[in-house]
Write a structure and sequence with these properties.
The complex is a heterodimer of chains A (445) and B (333).
Chain A (H helix, E strand, L loop, with lengths): L22 E3 L5 E5 L9 E2 L6 E2 L4 E4 L8 E2 L4 E10 L5 E9 L22 H10 L12 H4 L10 E5 L9 H8 L1 H15 L4 E6 L3 H12 L5 E6 L8 H9 L14 E5 H13 L5 E7 L7 E6 L4 H7 L7 E6 L6 E2 L13 E6 H4 L12 H5 L6 H9 L3 H6 L10 H5 L6 H18 L4
Parallel strand pairs in A: 1-14, 9-10, 9-12, 10-11, 13-17
Antiparallel strand pairs in A: 2-8, 3-5, 4-7, 5-6, 7-8, 13-14, 15-16, 15-17
Chain B lengths: L17 H23 L1 H25 L10 H11 L7 H16 L12 H12 L1 H4 L21 H10 L4 H8 L3 H6 L11 H13 L6 H20 L7 H6 L3 H8 L10 H21 L6 H18 L13
Helix pairs in contact in B: 1-2, 1-3, 1-10, 2-3, 2-4, 3-4, 3-5, 4-5, 5-15, 10-13, 11-13, 11-14, 14-15
The chains are: A alpha/beta (445), B mainly alpha (333).
């Protein structure tokens, strides 16, 4: 009996139609638009100016503030300008625009294909290197990895969990690296274990990816016995931090708490690979694996894509926007963001581009709540979405807080399962933001 | 320039809609309907047709001309109410009884409260109980009508097993005597041939419907099972203490409307609790009240009243029986 999390969850069709497409390098672009806000926290400060020559992997923006991350150039060429440009939602964000000339990498990056097993750096040096290389969490939230690997004072990590569940339908980028780079991932896991000082690590992989489980297990059994591969039952949102901790260790993150409160640190397999590349190959994070998929497309692809490639360029490379596609999503269909601006560019945590037709993404007309309790059954946090929705529509802040709206992880299970098409998550998301603002505004005890 | 659709996540939706759920309930009722057509012939078809047509028509007329709101007959919920009410009436009921029941179910119990999702009480049961107290003779006339398929109607008047037991006990007979006189067997109850309302004839047909509802994830087993287990345990206590006077648990579960009520009536979304814990409490309450009415009330069967009584407690149950919060149940050693 495989493990899974204990409350709620749904079983959407996984649609991993791109799983057999090997990772290919995305062709070099003519112009790269590199966002300064590719991570959670404060935007990075650009340190280059118009006319500067840059190489691939060169630092172009420095982390500003405690939660922030360095940004490196993904191309070589000349800086055209530093200006405000829209991100995928259309909000203005500072970008460094580089006209590409050739493909010249900085010398310090080890570009060979050799797998470097020996971890030479010490605990402090590892964290420093990860911070320098601008590694962020590639599971979605893009939280700077070096901060996650440095537990706050008083908190001790005793286990490292690696998320290889890739529970979002369609996406296969994590799946492909588990097939193609299993040993690099496991070395990355070892590096993070050393940085945290923990002796146990678990990689959770859902059972709908038997090849990935086999591939990772095969390598882990030969020399990485301290890292356990844990098959998990297929269930969304298994990859949520709190759900993964529950599924693998049985520990529960308390309300408003962090994973570290249970002694666990969660990282994604993609992040583990980025950590490996940063620490063993001295390669900053400036590219990532991106699945380009959709049932309306004739070809399904997995690319290694450099940061700063516009959605337009990506669509052009795969042969144009499919005729019947109406929605372009950056990420998976459950938590991904709909792209509003095709001129926006990819960022470090871009994991997939999904094209959906009107038929696939249509929301039916909203009807009366029939109190079927499907949302209550589906909510992995044990909340009552139908009630939160009702309270949110009349702005009952105290009651929303009493009913733990702040615990919502915005996984979308409620809206997915509502037979009456009530926009549960839309109203809950808005009211959650308001309630959190009120809670943070209160004097601390 | 291609226009892109932009909306917040999630971008896909599950396969279930109100319409598909209601359609599944209708499909789950088909086995029972077929069995009742086999046993009661045209009479069962007539009741089902009058029920469905009247309920849909009443909903349409009231929404379209009286309230002037969106007409919701397309979600099939009115059809479900009509069908359930038909299955809850004696097979020999006249068509106008069905008509009155349907008008009360939709017009009074459903639309006065604001339509689908707003009604406090199960509409079909309100219709049935209204008829039961207004037309007590007709509603307890269990004569079996002639059927095309079946010849040689049983000599019995078709009285329900529960009413036979209740009357027999009142006359001072022991259970053994009553059972001998009437030749009850559990196989009979499972496959039919007992007097009762249209949908109660075959326990097996109802159980097939239940399995379909579970398979299609329309309902969970919490409510039906907690009712059935409660009835079994509660009647079991009486039975162990005095088997001369009280019927055994299996008889109680297979007789009367326990299966029809627990599978199709008590699980009505609108009038049942939201949390799993609440559903169990609700089911236990229905089970206890049903047995109390059966043993100590003046009616031989009490599940309709039990469900309506527990319907009234649902808002209270929802207020106090909340699902277990993920974040509150911290169990870290």
């Amino acid at each position: 009996m495989s493990k899974t999390f204990s409350i709620g969850g749904i079983h959407p069709h996984d649609n991993k139609i791109s799983k057999d497409a090997a990772i290919e390098n995305f062709p070099l672009v003519e112009t790269a638009y590199i966002s300064m806000s590719q991570h959670l926290g404060a935007p990075a400060e650009p340190i280059v100016a118009k006319g500067d020559k840059v190489k691939v992997g060169q630092l172009i923006a420095k982390a500003s503030g405690f939660i922030s991350a360095n940004i490196h150039s993904s191309v070589s060429g000349t800086v055209r300008s530093v200006e405000m440009l829209p991100d995928l939602a259309g909000n203005p964000v500072q970008h460094v625009i580089i006209d590409v000339e050739g493909d010249e990498w900085i010398d310090t990056i080890d570009r060979s294909n050799d797998i470097v097993k020996d971890i030479k750096l010490g605990k402090e040096e590892i964290i420093k290197r990860i911070a320098e290389c601008g590694v962020v969490g590639l599971g979605g939230a893009a939280f700077p990895t070096h901060i996650k690997l440095t537990p706050p004072p008083g908190k001790v990590a005793d286990v490292l969990l690696i998320n290889g569940s890739e529970c979002e339908p369609y996406l296969t980028s994590d799946y492909r690296i588990m097939l193609e780079n299993p040993e690099e991932i496991l070395i990355g896991v070892r590096i993070m274990m050393k940085a945290l000082g923990v002796s146990k690590a678990y990689v959770g992989i859902e059972e709908n990816k038997p090849k990935a489980i086999k591939s990772m297990k095969g390598v882990a059994d030969k020399g990485y016995t301290d890292i356990k591969i844990v098959p998990l039952k297929k269930r969304y949102p298994q990859g949520g931090e709190k759900q993964l901790i529950d599924a693998v260790t049985g520990r529960r993150v308390p309300s408003m708490g962090l994973p570290i409160d249970t002694g666990a640190v969660v990282q994604n397999v993609g992040t583990a690979l980025a950590v490996y590349e940063a620490v063993q190959k001295n390669k900053p994070l400036f590219d990532g694996i991106v699945t380009v998929t959709g049932k309306c497309m004739t070809e399904q692809r997995n690319f290694r894509l450099r940061v700063g490639t516009t959605f337009d360029t990506m669509m052009f490379a795969i042969g144009g926007f499919p005729k019947d596609a109406v929605k372009l999503i950056s990420g998976g269909p459950m938590m991904g963001k709909a792209v509003a601006c095709m001129d926006a560019a990819s960022v470090k945590s871009t994991s997939g581009l999904l094209l959906l037709t009107e038929e696939e993404t249509k929301r039916g007309p909203e009807r009366n709540c029939i109190r079927c309790a499907k949302c209550v059954e589906a909510c992995p946090m044990g909340l009552q979405p139908y009630l939160l929705n009702r309270l949110a529509r009349v702005n009952r802040m105290e009651e929303l807080e009493e009913n733990m709206v702040q615990d919502c992880i915005e996984c979308g299970c409620c809206l997915y399962s509502c037979p009456a098409n009530i926009p549960l998550l839309d109203t809950i998301r808005l009211s959650k933001a308001k309630v959190l603002k009120i809670m943070r505004g209160r004097p601390k005890k | 320039m291609k226009k892109l659709l932009v909306s917040p996540a999630p971008h896909i939706h599950g396969p279930q809609t109100t319409k598909s759920l209601m359609r599944d309930v209708i499909i789950a009722l088909v086995p029972s309907l077929l069995v009742s057509i086999y046993f009661f012939g045209f009479s069962a078809i007539k009741l089902a047709l009058v029920g469905v047509v009247t309920c849909v028509a009443v909903e349409y007329v009231i929404q379209r001309y009286l309230i002037k709101c969106t007409v919701t007959i397309g979600d099939y919920s009115a059809a479900v109410t009509g069908l359930l009410l038909a299955l809850n009436l004696p097979p020999n009921s006249p068509w106008w009884l069905m008509l009155i029941g349907s008008i009360v179910a939709i017009g009074v119990a459903k639309l006065t409260f604001g339509g689908l999702g707003q009604n406090l009480f199960n509409p079909a049961l309100v219709g049935r109980v209204f008829l039961l107290v207004s037309f007590p003779v007709l509603m307890t006339d269990w004569t079996i009508p002639a059927s095309w398929f079946r010849e040689g109607i049983d000599a019995s008047s078709g009285a329900t097993a529960l009413s036979i037991v209740k009357e027999g006990l009142a006359q001072g007979l022991t259970l053994d005597q009553i059972f001998q006189n009437h030749n009850f067997s559990y196989m009979q109850m499972l496959f039919s041939k007992i007097g009762g309302s249209v949908g109660e004839v075959s326990a097996l047909a109802l159980i097939i419907g239940f399995a379909y509802l579970l398979y299609r994830r329309v309902i969970t087993a919490h409510i039906p099972l907690s009712i059935i287990v409660t009835v079994a345990l509660f009647t079991g206590i009486f039975w162990v203490v005095n088997p001369e006077h009280y019927t055994d648990p299996l008889f109680n579960i297979l007789s009367g409307g326990i299966l029809l009520g627990s599978i199709f009536m008590a699980t009505d979304y609108v009038t049942s609790p939201m949390s799993k814990k609440g559903m169990v409490l609700y089911g236990v309450g229905i089970g206890i009240i049903t047995v109390l009415i059966r043993y100590f009330g003046s009616y031989p069967e009490g599940i309709s009243f039990a469900i309506l009584i527990m319907n009234a407690f649902v808002p209270l149950i929802n207020k106090y029986m909340k699902p277990a919060y993920f974040g509150k149940e911290v169990k870290n050693g």
